[in-house]
Design a protein that fits this description.
By secondary structure, the chain is an all-alpha fold. 64% of the residues lie in helices and 0% in strands. The chain has one domain (15-233). Keywords: Disulfide bond, Membrane, Transmembrane, Transmembrane helix.
């Protein structure tokens, strides 16, 4: 959207409005992170090639700040894990009770699409359970009281899988509470279990990134010391 003129065409395919605030914020965040990574790499490469003690020092300093920020974030996440979990649960509950909407062909709300994808992938419905949608005003006066993504029998066919009038959806919404083709468990517990099951992998990735950053700092300092010794000898 910011740099590619064809980006709007890509968004049209998945029915997302490029003016949606969440999309704007996500794109800006990615650009900022990319700029920081590029700047850091640029300083390291130029410092090594030009044998610049100043650039190498700046590279090591930025890498150190990033590493410190990551360690601080990890410690805070561990210390306030319960508080973060409660905040996430509260926000998920609020979203299911008031914000979630039925998917429509013209729906362009990124958060609704993301929530629907989560329910579909994790095989869950609502935050605590499917009953979270019972008081959601967006599902009043409709032929279905729950999101289409709470159904397990969606399939690609001539009928749109998310069309509430399709045969698949009618089968699901018929006696939703008792049939075996609807998801009834909440997404908070499902998401928590998903993270816990992959905790070792996530920790391993984090440790791996930290090790690479530490090696980068060490190598930068070693090259800087070699450059300084070379300058002294000269």
């Amino acid at each position: 959207m910011k740099v590619d003129k064809n980006f709007n065409k890509y968004l049209d395919v998945i029915k997302i409005d490029n003016n949606e605030k969440t999309m704007q914020a996500a794109i800006i965040l990615v650009i900022v992170i990319g700029a920081i990574i590029f700047l850091t790499g640029f300083l390291g490469c130029c410092g090594a090639i030009q044998e610049s003690s100043c650039l190498l020092m700046m590279y090591a300093f930025i890498m150190g700040l990033l590493l410190l920020a990551e360690i601080t974030a990890a410690i805070l996440a561990a210390v306030f894990r319960k508080e973060l979990g409660n905040a996430l649960k509260e926000n998920m509950q609020k979203f299911a009770n008031t914000t979630m909407k039925p998917l429509e062909p013209t729906n362009n709300d990124v958060t609704v699409l993301a929530w629907s994808s989560m329910q579909n992938k994790l095989k869950c419905c609502g935050s605590h359970s499917y009953t979270d949608y019972n008081n959601n005003p967006n599902f009043e006066n409709r032929n279905h009281k729950y999101p289409q993504s709470c159904c397990s029998n969606k399939k690609e066919s001539t009928e749109k899988p998310d069309d509430p009038n399709s045969q698949e959806m009618r089968d699901c919404f018929n006696d939703f509470e008792n049939n075996n083709i609807s998801y009834k468990d909440g997404c908070y517990d499902a998401l928590k279990k998903w993270v816990e099951d992959r905790a070792a992998i996530l920790i391993g990735i984090g440790v791996g990134i930290a090790v690479i950053q530490i090696l980068g700092i060490v190598f930068a300092c070693c090259v800087r010391n070699a450059v300084n010794k070379k300058d002294v000898m000269a």
